[in-house]
C-alpha cells in the first residue's frame, strides 16, 4: 500500500468523532455523555434536598426560639414572685424582733433607788433595798439580776424564796428588799475574790431584764467578798423576810 494512503488513514483515525455520532465507551459500559447526565441529576437532587432541609430547619429554629423566649419569661415571672414572697417574710420577721417589751406596772430604773446595806447577820449577807421614788405605784417583779464587776453571767437565785404573790407592790416611798448571799459561810465554794462593783437590773412582768441603765449601789466598805456560790433572793416586802435565807 502506498505510503500516502497509510498517512491518510492514520489522519482519519486521529480525528475527533463527528457531531451526532456515539462517543467512545468507558470501562464499565457507560459513556462519557451518560456519566455527565447522571452527575447533573445527582447534583440537582442534592441541591433540592439541601433546600428542603434548610426550610425545615428554619421553621424549627423559629419555633424553638419562640418556645425558649416563652420559657424564659415564665421562669423570670416565677423568680420575681418568689423574691416578693421572701421580701414580705423578711419584713414581717424584722417587725416582730423590733416589738418593744411590755413593762406593765413594773418599777422602772428611773423611778427606783437601789441601795446596798451591811447587816450583822446572817454572815456574808448584804441587804438590797429598792425604794419607789416615783409618783405612781409600781411592782418589783421577780428578783434582781446581779453582776459583780465585769462578770458576764448573773448571780444565782434562791428559788425557795419565791413569794406566792407575783411581785411586791410599792406605793410611792415604799421599798422592797432582797438579800445578797455573797459567799458560802463554810468556804465550800472556793477562795473567792473582792468585788468592787455591783450592778442591779430589775425585771419585767415576764421575767426579762428591764431596758435602761442598771443601778450600781455603793458597796458597804467599798468592796464585797464573793465566790462562785453568790446568789440573791426574790424581792420581799420586809427586811426580815429577805434575810431569813
Automatic annotation (TrEMBL):
Residues 62-71 have a biased composition (Basic and acidic residues). Residues 10-25 have a biased composition (Basic residues). Residues 107-236 form the DUF4232 domain. Residues 72-94 have a biased composition (Low complexity). Residues 1-31, 58-108 are annotated as: Disordered. This is DUF4232 domain-containing protein. The lineage of its organism: Bacteria, Bacillati, Actinomycetota, Actinomycetes, Kitasatosporales.
